[in-house]
Amino acid sequence: MSTWKLEQLACPRCGASVEAKVVRAVAAGRAPAWRRAVLDGTLHRPRCAGCDAVVAIEAQFLYDDEPRGEWMMVAPTAALGAWAAHERDAMATFARVMAASGVGRRPTRVRVVFGVAELREKIAAWDAGLDDRQLECAKLVVLRERPAVRGPDERMRWLELGGDPLVLGIGAATAAAPVRVTLDVPRAWLAGIDVDAWRPSCPELFADGFVSIDRYLRAEAA
């Protein structure tokens, strides 16, 4: 079931008190409104009634969409540098949840993501019939062809995946930071990315857990 609590948060612009729902677990199959909030960008992004500023909430929670076979641990974006520990924790939590369910249920997609923007990226990709592993390989191709497009510590996020072209955004990893630059990516170009050619060099992208090029970029930065 979905669980959440009301919290009073300070607006980062004017300091006014903003009441917000902070989720601890989302059962999207039973409560589709939470899923819609992820996709429209309003989950954990309340607006101040006084100045209309967005309050970015960073909280760890579980996202479970049983009908779609999706299970994700959402960690704060600030924890990205410790992705390996969070991946281990997520997979251990998943194992405990599955054992406790006692019904032999097994989601087809098990992921750990950092921030609601990455959660949205995953859900939007699967909604569009796209493989998130292929999308991560495509980011690697973009970096290979245009290495200067990404600044230090920036993340790459697919913003639009339903049409043609797809839109790739690049910007700071922090939750409240705006996207610095966007790239239009023809859908035909994406279809030409051979994921099997990437599998030997990036096997971690083809398993459950942190399916993201950031696992490699963060290792390089370290």
Structure report:
The protein has 7 helices and 8 strands. The strands form 2 sheets. The protein has a 5-stranded mixed sheet, sandwiched between helices. It has a 3-stranded antiparallel sheet with strand order 6-7-8. It is globular. It is an alpha/beta fold. The longest helix has 19 residues, at about 85-100.
Name a few traits of the molecule.
222 residues; alpha/beta; 5-stranded mixed β-sheet; 3-stranded antiparallel β-sheet; 7 helices; 8 strands; globular
Lay out the secondary structure:
Blueprint: E1 3-10, E2 17-27, H1 32-39, E3 61-65, E4 70-75, H2 83-101, E5 109-114, H3 116-127, H4 132-145, E6 154-160, E7 166-172, E8 179-185, H5 187-191, H6 195-198, H7 214-221
Parallel strand pairs: 2-3, 4-5
Antiparallel strand pairs: 1-2, 3-4, 6-7, 7-8
Supply the number of helical segments: 7
Mean pLDDT: 94
Q: What's the helix-strand series?
A: EEHEEHEHHEEEHHH
Net shape? globular
Total count of strands: 8
Could you give the order of strands across the largest sheet?
1-2-3-4-5
Approximately how much helix is present in the residues? Answer: 25-40%
The poorly predicted ranges are none
What is the C-alpha radius of gyration, as a whole number of Å? Answer: 18 Å
The class by helix and strand makeup works out as: alpha/beta
End-to-end separation: 39 Å
> Biggest sheet: strands, sense, closure?
5 strands, mixed
Q: Strand content of the residues, in percent? A: 25-35%
